[in-house]
Amino acid sequence: MTLRLETMPAERFDAWRAATAAQLGELRIGSGMRPPAEARDEADGILSRRFPEGIGSAGQRVLELRDGERAVGTAWLEVRADPPHAMLYALETEDPVVAAAAMGLLETAARAAGATVLRIDLFAQDAAGWAAIDGRGYRATDVQMLLAPLPAPRPAGAVRLERMTAAQYARFEERLIAEFAADLVNEGLHTPETARAESERQTAEALPDGLDTEDELLFVARTDGVAEPVGILWLSVMRRSTGPHAFVLELRVEAGHRRRGFGTAMMRAAEDEARRVGADSIGLHAFGSNAPARALYAGLGYREAEVLLAKDL
Questions:
Q1: CB 270 within 8 Å of CB 221
Q2: With 90 as the cut, is the pLDDT of residue 155 above it?
Q3: Are 61 and 76 in contact, with CB atoms under 8 Å apart?
Q4: In sequence order, what are the beta bridge partners of 309?
Q5: Which run of H or E residues covers position 197?
Q6: pTM
């Protein structure tokens, strides 16, 4: 086999776009992270945003995998300049040998375009995608986890949740922005110069009305015998076609109160809040490098549904 990458002819773009939107939508449906209607809309939205000018849109490379004169698959690679990295959104082929070989060619192409990191987003059920990167040195950077359906109510834990006060929110917001900016740098998603601005932008987008933002529930966790809160919980309520879905955006046990079961108790309290708003599922994200958090959530029944991976080039 002599595999090579070639730019897709423009006349084949529309058919590729439709097939890729359908594929990305089905992956989202299969993961359980999105209901069918939202999954398909999200997939189509990704393509619409990335290809405002069709196949010639800036930064986008739609490629055909060819073995001699035979087309054996397609790939979609995006190259970004700040910081210099690439994202592989889709790799489609029926041959696992071709997929593995294509990863090597795509890494070379990304490196030649100036990228220092190649990222790929994989869903748990995408066996072909996981096989294609096996043994190639990719690391998990961000993990989406899901608990669905919610289990029966569990015994009350050692904490109780109270809504944040304005003063508590001000301290929370500043720490959130600073720590998320540091995470963006550590995971290679932003440079130190751009991370703070991006963190502020995302925080303002998520909490436009601060503590009073609709469907954003911000709590401190308290326990008997301790004057100060032992933790913070931020629970977002997402209104979906199939009913509410809860998502944990922030879970923090304060230093000095860790390894005492408060994290588990707060997660169980989050389940109770999810039930209170009518949700039957709850999701969260964890940084790939945060093994203790991933272990905590797995022990509570969460499964890893979607993983963003990266490889240094």
A1: no
A2: no
A3: yes
A4: 120, 140
A5: helix 192-206
A6: 0.88
Residues 6+ apart with CB under 8 A from 273: 161, 217, 219, 235, 246
- Give the mean model confidence (pLDDT) for residues 164-184: 93
Q: How far is CA 272 from CA 16, 77, 258, 303, in A?
A: 44, 42, 22, 19
130 close to 122: Cβ distance less than 8 angstroms: yes
Three-state secondary-structure class, residue 159: coil
Task: Tell me the two tokens of residue 164.
Answer: 């944040």
CB 294 within 8 A of CB 144: no
Residue 83 has pLDDT above 80, yes or no: no
Task: Write the CB contacts of 11 (distance below 8 Å, at least 6 apart in sequence).
Answer: none
Average of pLDDT values for 129-152?
A: 96
Predicted confidence band of residue 60 (pLDDT cuts 50, 70, 90) = very high
192-216: per-residue pLDDT in tens?
Answer: 888 999 999 999 999 999 999 999 9
Coil, helix or strand at residue 175: helix
Residue that the structure tokens 């436009």 belong to: 208
Residues 6+ apart with CB under 8 A from 254: 228, 229, 230, 231, 232
Q: What is the dihedral sign for C-alpha 163, 296, 88, 177?
A: positive
Tokens of 61: 């490379």
Determine contact, residues 234/261, Cβ cutoff 8 Å: no
Peptide bond into 83 cis (omega under 30): yes
Residues 6+ apart with CB under 8 A from 249: 206, 234, 235, 236, 284
The whole-angstrom separation of Cα 170 and Cα 211 is 9
- Cβ proximity of 254 and 262 under 8 Å: no
Query: Would you state the pLDDT for residue 84?
Result: 87
Q: Report pLDDT digits (tens) over 252-291.
A: 999 989 889 999 999 999 999 999 999 999 999 998 988 9
Measure CA 278 to chain center. 24
- Whether residue 189 is predicted with pLDDT greater than 80 in this model: the reply is no
